[in-house]
Design a protein that fits this description.
Blueprint: E1 2-3, H1 17-31, E2 36-42, H2 46-54, E3 58-65, E4 68-76, H3 77-86
Parallel strand pairs: 1-2
Antiparallel strand pairs: 2-4, 3-4
Length: 90
């Protein structure tokens, strides 16, 4: 399992850059044979949660990370590849 992190400066948010970077990272992870990818964000970070869902990650559970409440999203990359073939724009 590998974590997929990202960060976008406030002046560049809302332009799809995080989703584009996440999709590219998922594609690389898939291409090198990783099985599962996860991403974390603070529970209240709705923008990051939307990006995770937009790129095909699904909510798995709440976790504590560095003493703060986070949500963990992830995907089995075999499922992610199959979903991309079925819906290429995703």
């Amino acid at each position: 399992m590998v974590e997929l992190p990202w960060s976008v400066l406030p002046g560049s948010q809302g332009r799809g850059l995080a989703a584009e970077a996440a999709r590219a990272a998922l594609s690389v992870a898939s291409g090198i044979g990783l099985k599962h990818v996860v991403s974390l964000t603070l529970t209240g970070n709705l923008a990051s949660r939307r990006v995770m869902e937009k790129v095909g990650l699904t909510y798995e559970r709440e976790v504590e990370h560095f003493g703060l409440p986070h949500v963990l999203y992830g995907t089995d990359l075999r499922v992610w590849r199959a979903d991309r073939r079925a819906a290429p724009g995703r």
